[in-house]
Backbone:
């Protein structure tokens, strides 16, 4: 049993002169649903393409399930991928797509694929180009799941879907996770999409990993402090300020710490995942190019 | 992988097979008629001493079909490049489906090898079949005109169209891969292919094999044109060598010691003493004719060389496609 599904060391990708991803060091544990969140253009797609072997790194190394991405049919068979905008062959029918999956994947589960398509009420004779966005995403997801991968990677799978289709797709994904025990890595620019499904979160802003860790642990070690106005630089050394905002009389801080906060001047409240991510995004924008945080284990 | 390629290419295959079948039917009907007509007119013309008339009458037969064939043979390789080659990868890149294809349990190299190999072979087979039919159908005409090495006909017969199809196809695939958009790639393919084909026919083909240079005594009966220009009655003579099926680069009349300056015309030609006397006088000048040409016997050597060159170009482009998909596309 592999304990990490993805290991990156100093991973970077440069396009012309711009680094789309730089100095990325990550260990993503197995058996989890991992959310990759960050604003548009942060480098999420680049990281996922490096993980699927669609891209080759400019710097550093990446291993997925212990192997080089896409370097052999066996390695390809272990990783399922649903690309952004869930591409399908618009002139091929649903049945053709299933046949495609069966022909190109040695571990293809035809029963699973047919069951999913039946449950989704998709007409097998329909061409993919005539499907709705939600149906097309479900078809792409079916292809990736019936391939029986150990790791399923999804790039913004719900970005272009309406709220109902969004919910249905994530529900289908979670069922597959429960049935097959696969690891999932999915990206989104919206925390709300990931909040319900993820055990583990990676925040990627401005081509750098800001923080990565289990959701529970992230929530337990981050706090929202509210109190009378004061300089955020005067906090104890074991309290790291992620973001700060002040009005004339009041200061609000997002703080990361491993020890409880006892200072009576502060009102300590638990932080939501969305606020936590926003704090990191704001910090990254404010601080320009600060070195990445070390990764939480 | 073979299944996916076939599924994507199926409709195109049916269209091509239908077109080839239609041409085959037309040829099957008109071809035997032409052979019969040839056998009854041109083949027996010696007996009636009117070979020129018979040949002219025969050549004007089915002229619409002849022109159509010539046109089809010229556009088919370009169409293969534009409609089979250019969309092959460009359409995947445009729709993003390459990310679907390349993340199945088949490596990118194998995906490209099967797509390129099968569709490329189909292109070559279609062009080869078409050329075979056209070469068969045109045989009576070609036997009369006897100009197989002529730049206008050479590329429309034999095995050369197979090379053109392979090259045009690979060119289309490469263009689609580099441009990443189907329509511009199609247009670019047609333009570049036409340029290469014309440049090859008009400039490069003549240098594939060193021509023969033959100098013989001038046969005055082959003189096609003779002129005497005013200052000094300067003589110039041109001949049309009788070399059936040969590709003549140049034919020049020189003096016995090889000079192109023939000097003054003999008096018999100036004094209006009659053609016979003039010819006899020129004959006494012992002029020579120098012909640079490719003999008809080299036809298949030229066909093989040119086909090999275009297939090599196609393979080089295919190599570029492999390298590019591995390195530069995601």
Residues:
């Amino acid at each position: 049993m592999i304990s990490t599904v993805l290991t990156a060391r100093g991973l970077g990708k440069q396009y012309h002169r711009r680094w789309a991803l730089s100095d990325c060091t990550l260990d993503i544990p197995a058996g989890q649903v991992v959310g990759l969140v960050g604003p548009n253009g942060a480098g999420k797609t680049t990281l996922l393409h490096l993980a699927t072997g669609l891209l080759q790194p400019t710097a550093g190394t990446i291993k997925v399930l212990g192997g080089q991405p896409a370097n052999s049919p066996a390695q390809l068979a272990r990783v399922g991928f649903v690309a952004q905008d869930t591409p399908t062959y618009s002139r091929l029918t649903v049945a053709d797509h299933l046949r495609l999956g069966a022909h190109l994947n040695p571990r293809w589960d035809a029963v699973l694929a047919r069951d999913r398509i039946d449950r989704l009420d998709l007409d097998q004779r329909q061409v993919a180009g005539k499907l709705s966005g939600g149906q097309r995403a479900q078809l792409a997801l079916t292809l990736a799941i019936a391939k029986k991968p150990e790791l399923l990677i999804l790039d913004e799978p719900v970005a272009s879907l309406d709220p109902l289709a969004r919910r249905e797709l994530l529900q289908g994904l979670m069922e597959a996770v429960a049935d097959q025990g696969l690891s999932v890595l999915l990206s989104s620019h919206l925390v709300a999409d990931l909040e319900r499904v993820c055990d583990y979160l990676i925040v990627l802003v401005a081509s750098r990993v800001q923080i990565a860790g289990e959701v529970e642990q992230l929530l337990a070690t981050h706090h929202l402090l509210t109190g009378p106005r004061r300089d955020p630089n005067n906090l104890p050394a074991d309290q790291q300020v992620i973001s700060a905002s002040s009005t004339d009389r009041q200061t609000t801080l997002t703080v990361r710490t491993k020890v409880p906060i006892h200072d009576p001047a502060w009102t300590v409240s638990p932080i939501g995942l969305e606020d936590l991510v926003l704090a990191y995004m704001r910090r990254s924008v404010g601080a320009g190019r600060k070195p990445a945080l070390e990764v939480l284990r | 992988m073979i299944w996916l390629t076939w599924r994507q290419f199926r409709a195109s295959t049916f269209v091509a097979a239908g077109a080839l079948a239609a041409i085959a039917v037309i040829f099957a009907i008109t071809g035997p008629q032409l052979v019969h007509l040839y056998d009854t007119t041109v083949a027996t013309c010696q007996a009636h001493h009117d070979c020129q008339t018979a040949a002219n009458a025969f050549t004007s037969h089915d002229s619409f079909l002849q022109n159509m064939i010539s046109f089809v043979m010229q556009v088919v390789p370009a169409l293969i490049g534009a409609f089979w080659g250019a969309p092959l990868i460009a359409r995947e890149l445009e729709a993003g489906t390459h990310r679907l294809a390349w993340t199945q349990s088949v490596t990118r190299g194998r995906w490209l090898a099967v797509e390129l190999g099968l569709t490329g072979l189909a292109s070559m087979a279609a062009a080869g079949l078409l050329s075979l039919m056209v070469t068969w159908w045109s045989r009576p005409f070609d036997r009369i005109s006897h100009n197989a090495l002529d730049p206008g006909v050479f590329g429309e017969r034999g095995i050369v169209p197979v090379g053109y199809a392979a090259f045009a196809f690979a060119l289309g695939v490469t263009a689609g891969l580099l441009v990443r958009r189907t329509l511009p790639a199609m247009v670019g393919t047609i333009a570049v292919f036409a340029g290469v084909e014309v440049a090859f026919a008009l400039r490069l083909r003549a240098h594939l094999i060193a021509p023969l240079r033959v100098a013989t005594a001038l046969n005055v009966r082959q003189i096609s044109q003779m002129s005497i220009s005013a200052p000094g009655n300067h003589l110039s003579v041109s001949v049309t060598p009788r070399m059936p099926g040969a590709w003549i680069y140049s034919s020049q009349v020189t003096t016995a010691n090889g000079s192109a300056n023939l000097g003054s015309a003999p008096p018999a030609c100036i004094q209006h003493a009659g053609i016979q006397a003039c010819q006899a006088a020129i004959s006494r000048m012992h002029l020579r004719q120098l012909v640079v040409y490719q003999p008809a016997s080299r036809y298949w050597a030229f066909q093989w060389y040119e086909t090999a060159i275009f297939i090599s170009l196609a393979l080089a482009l295919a190599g570029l496609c492999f390298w590019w998909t591995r390195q530069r596309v995601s």
In short: Residues 219-286 of chain B form one domain. Chain B has a mean pLDDT of 91.
